[in-house]
């Protein structure tokens, strides 16, 4: 073996590798090939009640639990005119700084209303620092069918308790009409 | 300070098998604290009478069949106490009580403002069962009344006891019974107490929360800084809670020597001014006559040139809100840089008699009468002073003393006020301006304290009489100013003819010493005593002044606002140091923004003469203190004063020794006004500039009325409820007349509340002659 | 409602009866209730005014004690004791009967506004259980029929007498009595043979109280 020149031995490695199956993953062209595990800690999401009201009550427990100090929350009062969540309090400001977040999940563990959960989305790179501080509108979950966007009233004749006991299934016609009317007023106001 | 040397009778008992000696009369819960055993408690509060309402503090006492509340039971010789540490019985009892308390307590901690700093949360963890066995419906109330969440209440009665015992405003009470028991008010009497904020702070659950702070923050993201209240001369120690450079709330901090654990609502809630509508950039008046934003360099340069050009005809008007360091910097700047002694901090009505009184009796006198002295005094005489409005902590301390039954309060004032009633005071109803004879007739002894208020300045001869009375009878005398910086300003020498620490300007050795400390030539300092605030204004109105330096003056405080504005207008060059735009801004040539109390460190000297140091709470705003700004102007005028930071100013002020030759005490005869006089003082919560932007606080201010005796009213054919017009040659005020139990021939008005703007509309001071007539209408 | 000068004077008279005027609060609340049939905000204000208390302090007392009514009451007040002794001996039956007759529940007033029914606690008359009170006058050893008869007589305006003597005159009259203004009606001695039966029996068998010394 020692009589075979070094160079030939070297090229033999190269040559033999040509016939092996490549280990390279073609990301991002084939990103669906290996989806993350269901319990993967990805980007957060702020959930909504089935009628579209926000679940977040602005209690700041997530911020309190965060070991990286990545979350900032400021609560505020719901009013009769502008209601974002059932009950008295909602999260007016909600920011997660993904430059700091370590995806440990302590925040979603402490959330008393299950408002904060984690998605499997992991593509969290960007060009600027500002764009990696996600605001409430970036974090709110999408409006599913039968939801209308807050602010709007609670379902007629219900209290916050009914929301937590899962008695709300969808936005009612009155709520839908209310949101539509509100949008109309805003549009008129702008004109 | 005097130390009480009376021997204390000690009682020996054992707690958890450890022997301990405590003074007789100590509550078991306090004795346990001395051993480091924390018995859980809600209703117990060291400054309130025991009530044993919550039962959380049950302990086992040998020989007693049932566990006993340790917060309401005093120690006895040989008593054997077992707390939860060594007794299963006590532990089980405490856990049982906690379970009962939690039965009706909602699980809404995530939305409750108390969450995170809640004694109920904490003690449920330390002294409660892990899980509840209750699966019924919790009590619910319609909410909220005011800002109270009644379902959270554990009926500890701390709030009602505070209101009743400490404040003397028993407008809240525990209504109903059983599980429906709730804190409430009567429909016709709102809880308008000057001290209501304290109930929020001592509520051990989240039943009482602040409307202002509601849902604003959480304890963990607050940075708490010990500060001193800037609103009055009580000198309350406060805790300022800051979140990202903004003040979120202020709480009373524990200082047994001064404010104990209380403060007033003004101190607690009147802070929006520190962040709203601030002046952030220097402004310089351009050729076009308008103010334009300028750089610091430019503004300082313009100010320095203007002041230098006016040399020999400059004066300094400083308000009463400065820290002693800033006041000293102003005092020094006036003398050493401007070479003028025309300097005065008294933007309110004042007199030469007062100048003399302050220079001879108050300046540099250090700690005099203290809160502890008030508590021990046999007799306290209030002269031209309304503690509830002008120094609320004195009101609380006097009430405490009176409740103990050893102290008697006498008030020489125009009428019986709600504050007097709470002190059970003997009111010597005296028409404003006639106080001298009332005081002279009093028989006083060495166990008496005379508290004289700031409005005594406008009654000729009163300060003389008070000084004399104190000297003759051996009674102690204290001057209680209204503003936090007043006493410090006196010590810093912000009065004509007065150098720091009570030294007289006309005393040549003191002047030499001052020149030495200030590192200037002796002959640059003024030789003769200058003009006081009123004289400066008068001179300026007549165009005798070329430049004015004004800092933290409220035109609305001055004897006659219009004259003050005229004075500023008639002065060719005005430099104004301000925190927010004011009526002076509009007339100034250079406006320099300065730091508010949260943005700087410093010292207020309270009415006792006690220095109240505080640190810088907010560092983010990069605001300069008055001292720093003046140093920059001095630099530009080629007088090097150094950095003039707070530490340097403080050290420099300390170099001024006590005076060898004091200014003579005042000796003015009484000058009794002949006619119907005006009695007036500022209510605690009024239209003061620092109270702006706080609607919840303003809502608790008292009704604006004119108070007068029914006979006086009858003489002017005025019926109760009539609108009356009170006027002077300068203007008039029309308000509703209410009959008060008081002296004849005098009418009371709040100085700066609603329609009653005494300084602006009447240009009058306490004791001045006014005329009244029915203004018609109901 | 505004009170007459007589009421004000009577209230002041009550205040003068005690070393600490505040002690007069309980009778004074009965006095205003005797005038209005309830303790209204005006009544509370009167007491607060006379005694120099805050209205909240008076309201605290007025809402604590169940004998002070914050709502309108009927002409007569019927109390049925349903504590253990009375309840077992027929109080529960009386309560059920009267409650369904009047179609009213606890602390409610019948539709005609004549009778307010209340479930009351022990009146310290267990020897005569079951006990019913009519305008706080005793109806000892009550029966369903007896109470029914008394109530129908009251509604018809006939005279009804307590088993202990006094004529039933209406709640407001009784409240006046409670306020401390005596109507000089005869009151039977509170102690009768039935009440002393236990004592006699104890003496017979030679029972004595245990010594109070520890």
Which descriptors would you attach to this protein?
heterotrimer; A: 191 residues; alpha+beta; Alpha-Beta Plaits; three-stranded antiparallel beta sheet; two-stranded antiparallel ribbon; 13% strand; elongated; B: 778 residues; alpha/beta; Ubiquitin-like (UB roll); Rossmann fold; 5 domains; seven-stranded mixed beta sheet; six-stranded mixed beta sheet; 24 helices; 27% helix
Task: Describe this structure as you would to a colleague.
The complex is a heterotrimer of chains A (191), B (778) and C (214). Chain A is of the alpha+beta class and 191 residues long. Chain A has a domain at 44-164: Alpha-Beta Plaits (2-Layer Sandwich). Chain A has six helices and five strands. Chain B has five domains: 10-102, Ubiquitin-like (UB roll), CATH 3.10.20.740; 108-274, 2-Layer Sandwich (Alpha-Beta Plaits); 283-348 and 487-500 and 531-654, Rossmann fold (3-Layer(aba) Sandwich), CATH 3.40.50.740; 359-481, Dimethylsulfoxide Reductase, domain 2, CATH 3.40.228.10; 677-774, Barwin-like endoglucanases (Beta Barrel). Chain B starts with 9 loop residues before the first strand and ends with a strand. In chain B, the strands form eight sheets. In chain B, strands 12-11-22-21-20-13-14 form a seven-stranded mixed β-sheet, covered by helices on one side. By secondary structure, chain B is of the alpha/beta class. By secondary structure, chain C is of the alpha+beta class. Chain C contains eight helices and five strands, in the order H-H-H-H-E-H-E-E-E-E-H-H-H. Chain C has a five-stranded mixed β-sheet with strand order 2-3-1-4-5, with helices on both faces. In chain C, helix 1 (5-16) packs antiparallel against helix 2, helix 1 (5-16) crosses helix 3 and helix 3 crosses helix 4 (55-64). The N and C termini of chain C lie far apart (57 Å). Chains in contact: A-B, B-C.
């Amino acid at each position: 073996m020692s009589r075979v020149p070094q160079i030939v031995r070297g090229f033999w490695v190269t040559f033999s590798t040509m016939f092996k199956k490549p280990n390279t993953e073609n990301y991002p062209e084939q990103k669906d090939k290996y989806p993350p595990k269901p319990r993967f800690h990805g980007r957060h999401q702020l959930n909504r009640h089935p009628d579209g009201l926000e679940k977040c009550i602005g209690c700041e427990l997530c911020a309190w639990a965060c070991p990286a100090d990545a979350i900032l929350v400021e609560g505020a009062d719901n009013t009769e005119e502008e209601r974002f969540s059932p009950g008295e309090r909602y999260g007016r400001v909600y920011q997660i700084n993904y430059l700091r977040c370590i995806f440990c999940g302590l925040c979603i563990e402490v959330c008393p209303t299950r408002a904060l959960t984690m998605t499997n989305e992991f593509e969290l790179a960007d060009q600027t620092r500002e764009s990696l501080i996600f605001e409430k509108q970036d974090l709110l979950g999408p409006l599913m069918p039968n939801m209308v966007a807050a602010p709007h009233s609670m379902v007629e004749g219900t209290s916050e308790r009914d929301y937590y006991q899962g008695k709300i299934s969808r936005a009612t016609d009155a709520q839908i009409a209310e949101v539509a009317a509100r949008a109309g007023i805003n549009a008129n106001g702008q004109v | 300070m005097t130390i009480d040397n009376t021997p204390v009778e000690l009682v020996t008992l054992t707690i958890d098998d450890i022997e301990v000696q405590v003074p007789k009369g100590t509550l078991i819960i306090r004795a346990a604290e001395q051993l480091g055993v924390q018995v859980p408690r809600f209703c117990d509060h060291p400054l309130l009478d025991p009530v044993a309402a919550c039962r959380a503090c049950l302990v086992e006492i040998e020989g007693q069949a049932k566990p006993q509340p340790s917060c309401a039971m005093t120690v006895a010789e040989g008593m054997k106490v077992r707390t939860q540490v060594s007794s299963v019985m006590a532990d089980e009892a405490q856990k049982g009580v906690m379970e009962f308390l939690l039965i009706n307590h909602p699980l809404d901690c995530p939305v409750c403002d108390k969450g995170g700093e809640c004694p109920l949360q904490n003690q449920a963890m330390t002294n409660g069962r892990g899980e509840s066995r209750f699966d019924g419906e919790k009590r619910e109330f319609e909410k909220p009344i005011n800002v109270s969440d009644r379902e959270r209440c554990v009926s500890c009665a701390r709030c009602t006891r505070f209101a009743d015992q400490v404040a003397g405003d028993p407008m809240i009470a525990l209504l109903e019974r059983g599980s429906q028991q709730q804190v409430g008010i009567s429909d016709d009497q709102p809880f308008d107490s000057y001290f209501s904020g304290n109930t929020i702070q001592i509520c051990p659950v989240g039943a009482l929360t602040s409307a202002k702070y509601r849902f604003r923050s959480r304890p963990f993201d607050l940075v708490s800084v010990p500060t001193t209240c800037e609103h009055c001369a009580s000198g309350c120690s406060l805790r300022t809670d800051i979140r990202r450079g903004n003040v979120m709330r202020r709480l009373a901090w524990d200082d047994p020597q001064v404010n104990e654990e209380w403060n007033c609502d003004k101190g607690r809630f009147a802070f929006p001014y520190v962040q709203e509508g601030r002046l952030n950039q220097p402004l310089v008046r351009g050729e076009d006559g308008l103010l334009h934003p300028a750089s610091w360099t430019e503004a300082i340069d313009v100010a320095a040139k203007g002041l230098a050009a006016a040399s020999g005809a400059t004066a300094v008007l400083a308000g009463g809100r400065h820290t002693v360091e800033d006041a000293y910097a102003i005092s020094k700047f006036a003398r050493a840089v401007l070479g003028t002694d025309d300097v005065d901090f008294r933007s309110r009505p004042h007199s030469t008699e007062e100048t003399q009184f302050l220079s001879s009796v108050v300046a540099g006198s250090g700690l005099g009468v203290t809160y502890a002295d008030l508590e021990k005094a046999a007799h306290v005489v209030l002269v031209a002073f309304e503690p509830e409005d002008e120094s609320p902590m004195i009101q609380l301390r006097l009430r405490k003393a009176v409740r103990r039954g050893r102290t008697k309060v006498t008030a020489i004032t125009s009428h019986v006020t709600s504050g007097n009633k709470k002190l059970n005071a003997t009111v010597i109803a005296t028409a404003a301006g006639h106080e001298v004879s009332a005081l002279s007739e009093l028989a006083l002894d060495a166990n008496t304290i005379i508290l004289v208020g700031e409005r005594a300045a406008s009654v000729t001869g009163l300060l003389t009489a008070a000084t004399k009375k104190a000297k003759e009878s051996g009674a102690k005398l204290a001057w209680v100013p209204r503003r936090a910086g007043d006493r410090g300003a006196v010590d810093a020498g912000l009065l004509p003819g007065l150098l720091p620490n009570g030294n007289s300007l006309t005393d040549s050795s003191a002047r030499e010493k001052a020149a030495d400390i200030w590192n200037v030539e002796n002959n640059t300092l003024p030789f003769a005593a200058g003009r006081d605030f009123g004289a400066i204004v008068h001179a300026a109105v007549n165009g005798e002044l070329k430049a004015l330096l004004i800092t933290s003056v409220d035109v609305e405080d001055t004897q006659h606002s219009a004259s003050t504005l005229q004075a500023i207008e008639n002065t060719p060059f005005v430099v104004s140091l301000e925190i927010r735009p004011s009526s002076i801004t509009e007339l100034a040539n250079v406006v320099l923004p300065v730091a508010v109390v949260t943005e700087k460190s410093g010292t207020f000297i309270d009415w006792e003469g006690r220095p109240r140091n505080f640190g810088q709470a907010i560092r983010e705003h990069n605001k300069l203190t008055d001292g720093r700004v003046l140093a920059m102007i001095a630099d530009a005028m080629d007088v090097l004063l150094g950095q003039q930071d707070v530490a340097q100013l403080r050290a420099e002020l300390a170099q001024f020794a006590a005076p060898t030759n004091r200014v003579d005490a005042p000796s003015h005869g009484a000058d009794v006004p002949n006619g119907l006089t005006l009695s007036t003082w500022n209510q605690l919560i009024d239209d003061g500039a620092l109270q702006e932007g706080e609607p919840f606080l303003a809502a608790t201010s008292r009704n604006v009325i004119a108070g007068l005796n029914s006979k006086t009213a009858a003489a002017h054919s005025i019926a109760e409820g009539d609108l009356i017009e009170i006027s002077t040659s300068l203007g008039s005020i029309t308000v509703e007349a209410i009959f008060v139990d008081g002296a004849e021939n005098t009418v009371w008005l709040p100085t700066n509340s609603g329609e009653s703007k005494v300084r602006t509309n009447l240009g009058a001071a306490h004791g001045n002659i006014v005329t009244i007539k029915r203004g018609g209408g109901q | 409602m505004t009170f007459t000068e007589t009421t004000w004077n009577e209230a002041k008279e009550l205040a003068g009866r005690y070393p600490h005027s505040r002690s007069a609060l309980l009778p004074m609340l009965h006095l205003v209730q005797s005038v209005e049939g309830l303790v209204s905000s005006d009544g509370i204000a009167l007491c607060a005014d006379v005694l120099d208390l805050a209205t909240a302090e008076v309201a605290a007392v007025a809402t604590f004690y169940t004998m002070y009514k914050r709502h309108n009451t009927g002409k007569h007040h019927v109390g049925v004791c349903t504590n253990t002794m009375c309840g077992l001996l027929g109080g529960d039956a009386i309560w059920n009967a009267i409650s369904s007759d009047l179609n009213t529940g606890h602390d409610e007033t019948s539709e005609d506004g004549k009778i307010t029914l209340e479930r009351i606690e022990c009146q310290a008359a267990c020897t005569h259980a079951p006990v019913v009170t009519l305008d706080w006058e005793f109806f000892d050893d009550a029966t369903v029929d007896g109470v029914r008869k008394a109530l129908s007589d009251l509604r018809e305006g006939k005279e009804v007498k307590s088993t202990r003597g006094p004529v039933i005159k209406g709640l407001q009259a009784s409240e006046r009595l409670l306020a401390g203004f005596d109507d000089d009606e005869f009151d039977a001695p509170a102690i009768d043979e039935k009440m002393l039966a236990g004592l006699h029996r104890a003496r017979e068998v030679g029972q004595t109280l245990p010594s109070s010394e520890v």
